[in-house]
Amino acid sequence: MTTTDVQTVRVDLGPRSYDILIGTGILANAGEILSPILAQKRAIIITDDNVADLHLATLTRALDGAAIDHSEIVLPHGEGTKDFSHLQGLVEKLLDLKVERQTTLIALGGGVIGDITGFAANVTLRGINFVQAPTTLLAQVDSSVGGKTGINTTHGKNLVGSFYQPRLVLADIATLETLPRRELLAGYGETVKYGLINDPAFFGWLEENGAALCAGDGSLRIKAVETSCRAKATIVAEDERESGQRALLNLGHTFGHALEAETGYCDRLLHGESVAIGMVLAFDLSVRLGLCPAEDAERLRNHFKQMGLPTSPADIAGEKLAPEALLAHMAQDKKVRDGAITFVMARGIGQAFLTEDIRNDDLLALLRDHLTA
Predict the structure, then answer these.
(1) CA-based radius of gyration for the chain
(2) Active site includes 126?
(3) 242 is catalytic
(4) Quick one: pLDDT at residue 334?
(5) Is 360 considered catalytic here?
(6) Would residue 271 show up in a list of annotated catalytic residues for this protein?
(7) 157 included as an active-site residue
(8) Which of 371, 278, 279, 356 is nearest to 323 (CA)?
């Protein structure tokens, strides 16, 4: 692999800066890539049982080829793994393996593995290096970048965690070929987010190329991941700890996290699906409040429908959700300040903004309309 095979995006955070490498075949060359940055030639791979069957052998062969000593910890797949119990078990296993501060963890998997591995890296021995090796589209365009780590609690999603940056991100586009279409589409929902926040041209590009991207076009996938990562890297460099504009990256997430909490963090609703619904709700609410043209909200809804993504809480299979319960979950969102929820709203496609000026009555009316339609 040569440097021309890989797109590199720099996350500029001074002494905590790192690169995102995007291309095909990166996992097979991971040993060569990692050797220069490892404090010791030892790594612990953390993955889940699904990803282990698909990609673990590729990574271990690459480490063997570079004479990097390695061990593996395999966790159960699914959002249920992001809890205190599994975090404790993971840290205990790391200590059993006698990790040192010079040891590097490698998070091989989707957002769940990346989040819990990053958090474990932060709290084990008061901080050891970790590398993100995201294997899902959602993780490649979003969760592997920016240093958010954490776990879920009964009170909500990601309410316990830390900002802890990886040493490197290895986004191998080839791993997307093994994703079920539903998982791929969930990641596509997060990709669309970047167009909706501040890049209407990217949204238009996705309208034209989204179907081919999801059907398997590798060059389109690389472009989508690179564009998304550059957008996120720019925002993170300006606001690492989400004190201001980084909160724009939560477009759709306040609604989405409430939907995930109410459905029990299970396969009934994937994270990217919840965000897709949440973004539609944010645009619908913006229209109701006279902030956004109705045609922009309809354009977003139509695109998601054409791609096969859900666009309303009513699209979630199973027992009907209660608007009041969803609102209660939103009240425990991480972005609540002095009792007011910070929402990401839109003046149009590519024109997201932050506001605390949203009334509960308007939220309930919106949710009731969606759930009774």
Answers:
(1) 20
(2) yes
(3) yes
(4) 67
(5) no
(6) yes
(7) no
(8) 371
Q: Which residue has better confidence, 243 or 103?
A: 103
The rounded distance, in Å, linking the Cα atoms of 18 and 110 is: 19
Answer yes or no: 86 catalytic.
no
Rounded CA separation 324/271 (Å): 21
If you average pLDDT over residues 219-230, what whole number do you get?
98
Active-site hit among 55, 148, 221, 230: 148
CB atoms within 10 A of CB 342: 16
Of 55, 82, 167, 232, which one is the catalytic site residue?
Answer: 232
pLDDT in tens, 255-308: 999 999 999 988 999 999 999 999 999 999 999 999 999 999 999 999 999 999
Compute the distance between CA of residue 65 and CA of residue 58 in angstroms, rounded to an integer. 11
Q: Is 190 a catalytic residue?
A: yes
Instruction: Please say if 238 is a catalytic residue.
Output: no
Q: How confident is the model at residue 115 (pLDDT cuts 50, 70, 90)?
A: very high
